[in-house]
Structure formats: C-alpha cells, structure tokens
C-alpha cells in the first residue's frame, strides 16, 4: 500500500483526463488525496480517470472548464470547495501546443495558447490561493517544458507562454513563501504520451547532443516529481524548475 502522505488533502489537476495529468491525478489519489479532475472537452475520459481515482479509496469529481475563462475557473474551484472543503494542491497542466510558422501565425492563435498556459494559471492561482493562505498551507505546481529553454521552431506562442509561466511561478513563490505555500515548476523533456495530430510531431533528438538517458520519459516519472513537490515535508523547496528530461537540458 502506498504511503498516504496526502491524506486529507485535495488536489485540482487541470488537463487531468489523459497523459501527464492523468498520471499526476492517480499518484495523488494513491497518496490519499481527493482529486478535482479538469478537462476542456473529453468528459468521458475524465470520468474514467475519476473512476480510477475512486478505486484507490480517494474521492474525485470531474469539472469541464476552460481555464482561460475566469468565471469558469471560479465555478470549478467553488465546486471543489463544496465537495471537499477547499483546494490544497493546484497543478497547472492544461496547455495547447500547436505548431505553426511564426509569419503564418495570426493573433488569435497566439493569444489562445498564451491564454491557456499563462493566463489560465493566473486565474487558477487567484482562485485557489485565498483558501491556501487561510489554511497556512498550499502547493502550486506548474508544468513548463524543455522547449523554451532551448528554443524550437514553429512554437513561438507556446515557448513564450511557458517562459512567462516560469516568471509567474517564481513571483508567486517569492510572495507566498512566508505563508506555508510553495510554488514550483516541472519541465518535462520528451515524454511518451498520446498526442493529438494538432500538436505536431515531437521535436527530434539532436544527433550531436543525445539525451544521456537514451529513451523517452514515462508520464509516471513526471507524476513522481509532482508527488514529491506536493508532499508536506517538501516545504523548503520553492521557486524551482525541476527538469525531468533525461539530461537533455542541464541548465537552471
């Protein structure tokens, strides 16, 4: 039986219906946390994850919500508070990753990606932080990515949103560290996930700079990092970017 290090806690995981979000939701459930599973479109898949969460003995609710819409975010957080008493752990995993040449990118496409990854985190943090402050405890974990650290063609909108997300992560870490709240970011490398066609192909691994760990990562490895950061005993880790990429990027 897994250690119930998150017993009595409630986690909100955006983009929780598949891949990394699903793995994080299940890792938290196995550690004893109740989970609010957010999805934008695939409610059926989110309900499947909720059933898996409840099979661990934890509780779950599904919330269909566009994180870029503040009213929807407020309603989702209220639903979680009504069901479980509040949100202790926020995982900002929702994103949009489409590929397009910069000169072909219209403003609506640019804005939509940033609305989800950056503005969505702003809405989610503002909606959940008051409860964390009142309780004197909280964990916020954002999901960045290796791309903005190394640069990548045809993803200017995504890289810009993720870069801003790191700035927001560190700003919140600085502002709320004295209130029992940590804020950190996980930067995954090439992870073995099911991707929609609109996301485009995974960027190829450079032949001149192969990954020291010569394989793709598993979603469970990202979930393990998210579980580590959420644990009560990790209250002295904040404002950090945790790179989980097999050594592909070794910067700060």
How would you characterize this protein structure?
The protein is of the alpha/beta class. The protein is built from 7 helices and 7 strands, in the order E-H-E-H-E-H-E-H-E-H-H-E-H-E. The protein has helices at 19-30, 43-55, 70-84, 107-135, 147-150, 156-176, 219-230; strands at 10-13, 34-39, 60-64, 89-92, 138-143, 181-188, 241-244. The protein has a 7-stranded parallel beta sheet, with helices on both faces. Helix 2 links the parallel strand 2 (34-39) and strand 3. Helix 4 (107-135) runs parallel beside helix 6 (156-176). The relative contact order is 0.15.
List the helices and strands and how they pair.
Blueprint: E1 10-13, H1 19-30, E2 34-39, H2 43-55, E3 60-64, H3 70-84, E4 89-92, H4 107-135, E5 138-143, H5 147-150, H6 156-176, E6 181-188, H7 219-230, E7 241-244
Parallel strand pairs: 1-2, 1-4, 2-3, 4-5, 5-6, 6-7
């Amino acid at each position: 039986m897994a250690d119930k290090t998150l017993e009595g806690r409630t986690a909100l995981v955006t983009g929780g219906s598949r891949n990394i979000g699903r793995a994080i939701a299940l890792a938290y459930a196995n550690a004893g946390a109740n989970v609010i599973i957010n999805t934008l479109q695939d409610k059926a898949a989110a309900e499947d994850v909720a059933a898996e969460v409840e099979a661990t003995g934890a509780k779950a609710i599904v919330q269909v919500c566009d994180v870029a819409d503040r009213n929807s975010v407020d309603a989702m957080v209220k639903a979680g508070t009504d069901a479980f008493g509040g949100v202790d752990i926020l995982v900002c995993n929702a994103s949009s990753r489409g590929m397009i040449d910069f000169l072909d990118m219209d403003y609506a496409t640019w804005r939509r990606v940033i609305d989800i990854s950056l503005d969505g985190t702003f809405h989610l943090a503002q909606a959940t932080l008051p409860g964390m402050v009142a309780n004197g405890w909280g964990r916020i974990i954002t999901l960045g990515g290796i791309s903005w650290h190394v640069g990548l063609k045809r993803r200017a909108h995504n890289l810009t949103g993720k870069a801003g997300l790191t700035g927001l992560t560190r700003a919140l870490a600085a502002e709320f560290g004295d209130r029992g709240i940590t804020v950190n970011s996980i930067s995954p490398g090439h992870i073995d996930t099911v991707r929609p066609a609109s996301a485009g192909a995974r960027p190829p691994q450079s032949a001149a700079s192969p990954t020291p760990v010569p394989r793709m990562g598993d979603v469970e490895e990202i979930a393990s990092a998210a579980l580590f950061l959420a644990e009560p005993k990790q209250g002295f880790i904040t404002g950090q970017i945790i790179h989980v990429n097999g050594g592909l990027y070794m910067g700060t």
